[in-house]
Structures are given as structure tokens and as C-alpha cells.
Specification:
The protein is an all-alpha fold. It has twelve helices and no strands. The N terminus is likely disordered.
């Protein structure tokens, strides 16, 4: 997509409207919360040993991606809005688009990978630790990174039809895999609970049927990633609507209030995820509390 072919709506930015000031201030605040929150989560995950290493590695990747959104993408977005008074798109717009698609797309792909990982843990049972190894998960993450980067460049540089088609396919594929995984997990857990009630079997016998050894820890991780993906869905809806509407008009309304607001909601997801980690996983919550107590200003 040629930059010269993109029409924009920057009047609300040039006029320094209250909405412009609000969005800039909000993104600065969210950049701080995303950076601080995900830093604490990364430190906490380093201390937690009860989570299976491949799963913990995926959680770390998700937290690191959210950290990069707070450190790189949101400050760049604020700088971009503050530098467009000339109503001219520069290379910074292209850079912002590629980085946003890369990090946010990788968050979506990683959350989906965690859902599939939890489904495999349930279906494979004791074979899970031998099948899903840290080495294989690292290879998967590298492939996801390369795939998301390629898709980001295609989305940013291709024609409107190709770009939107790629975006829709990526989003729908990830949502389908996530919904399928959680639905399958829910049905298998219900079946497992029914068997336990009917047969009154012990914990070890129940696990011999293909269920994880630590079922409580498993449920915590599944619950956490379910909330993460609900938040992802909520935060991706505005930008998804923007993409749909952009195909019904003659130009992209890049820089409009709706576009800037949709991106702000999208970036807000990076501040939400640390809250879900602390809320649903007790070990992570305790590790975060321990880390905060080591900071002088929080020790009191």
C-alpha cells in the first residue's frame, strides 16, 4: 500500500481537541502500567517453579510482548500523534503499523498457543511432558515470530483487500483454535468430574486416564488464559470493526478519532494481562508481592 494512496483525518489532532489530549495522556499512563506490570510478572515467573517449563516459557513470551508494547509501541504512538500537525504521513506511520501488528499479533498467537498447550496437557496426560518439551516450544515461538513479522509487512505494504484478508484470516484462525481448545477442555473436565463422582476413584487413578497430575494448577492456568483471551477479544473488537468499515469506504481513515481510540483499546490489553496473572495464579501473586516488598517505596 503506497503512503500517498492513504487519506487521513487529522483535523481533531491539529485542533488539539480534548479527545486528543485525553488519548495522549491515557496512552502515556497505559505505557507506564504495561511496562511496570509486565516487569513484575516476568520477575515473578522467574521465581515460580510449579508451572511446567514449556507453559511458563509461553507465559513469559506473552508478558515480554506486552512489555514491548508498553516500552516501544505506545510511546511511538504518542509521539506519532504529537508530530502529525503537518498532516503528512511519514515513515513513522509505517513503523508504528508494523510494530503494532507484530507485537499485538504475536500476543494473539501466543495466547492461542497456550490454549492449545493446555488442551494437549489434558489429552496426553503423562505423555505430555515427553511430547511438549521446552525445545519444541522454543522452535514454535520462533516460527510464530517469523510468521507474524511476515504477516505484518504484508498487512502494512499490500493493497487494502489483501491486507484486510490476511488480518481477518489470522484473527478468525486464532479465535477458532482458542474457542475449540477451551470447549474441548471444558467437556473433558466435566467428564472427568462425573467419573470421579460416580466411581469414587482416587487422585492417582483419575490421572491414569490421561489427566494432568496437578489438576488444580492446571485449572488455574486454563482459567488465567481464558480471561486473557476474553480480554484480547474485547480489546481487538474496535480495531476489527475499523478494518471492516475501512473496506466499505474509498479510503483508510488513518488518524481519525475512531482509529486512534481503537488502537488505544488494543494497547490497553497489555496492561490487563498482568492483572489476570496475579488474580488467577496464587504463586505468581505471592511472587509479585515478594518483589514489591523488596522495593523501598513499597516495603512499608
Amino acid at each position: 500500500m503506497e503512503i500517498s494512496q492513504i487519506k487521513v483525518d487529522f483535523d481533531w489532532v491539529i485542533d488539539q481537541t480534548p479527545v486528543f489530549v485525553l488519548l495522549c495522556s491515557l496512552n502515556i499512563f497505559l505505557a507506564f502500567t504495561a511496562t511496570l506490570g509486565n516487569t513484575l510478572i516476568l520477575l515473578a515467573l522467574h521465581k515460580v517453579s510449579s508451572i511446567h517449563p514449556p507453559t511458563k516459557f509461553l507465559l513469559r513470551c506473552l508478558a515480554m510482548t506486552d512489555f514491548c508494547v508498553g516500552v516501544i509501541v505506545q510511546p511511538l504512538f504518542v509521539a506519532f500523534m504529537m508530530e502529525i500537525a503537518s498532516v503528512k504521513l511519514s515513515i513513522s506511520h509505517l513503523t508504528l503499523g508494523i510494530l503494532s501488528l507484530t507485537f499485538c499479533g504475536f500476543s494473539l498467537a501466543t495466547a492461542t498457543a497456550i490454549s492449545v498447550d493446555r488442551l494437549l496437557a489434558l489429552l496426553l496426560g503423562l505423555r505430555y511432558r515427553h511430547t511438549v518439551t521446552l525445545r519444541r516450544v522454543r522452535c514454535l515461538v520462533v516460527c510464530l515470530w517469523l510468521g507474524v513479522i511476515v504477516i505484518s509487512f504484508i498487512f502494512s505494504l499490500s493493497s487494502r483487500i489483501i491486507a484486510n484478508t490476511v488480518g481477518f484470516v489470522l484473527l478468525i484462525t486464532c479465535l477458532f483454535l482458542s474457542v475449540f481448545s477451551h470447549a474441548k477442555i471444558f467437556l473433558k473436565l466435566r467428564q472427568h468430574q462425573a467419573q470421579v463422582r460416580q466411581q469414587h476413584v482416587g487422585h492417582e487413578q483419575a490421572n491414569s486416564g490421561g489427566f494432568p497430575l496437578d489438576i488444580e494448577q492446571y485449572k488455574k492456568i486454563v482459567s488465567t488464559i481464558a480471561w486473557v483471551q476474553l480480554a484480547l477479544l474485547f480489546c481487538y473488537i474496535p480495531i476489527f470493526i475499523f478494518l471492516i468499515l475501512s473496506t466499505t469506504v474509498e479510503w483508510y481513515k488513518i488518524g481519525s478519532i475512531f482509529h486512534a481510540s481503537a488502537l488505544t483499546v488494543l494497547y490497553f490489553n497489555s496492561s490487563l494481562n498482568p492483572i489476570f496473572y496475579c488474580w488467577k495464579i496464587r504463586e505468581v501473586r505471592e511472587a509479585v508481592k515478594t518483589t514489591l516488598k523488596q522495593i523501598p517505596c513499597f516495603s512499608s
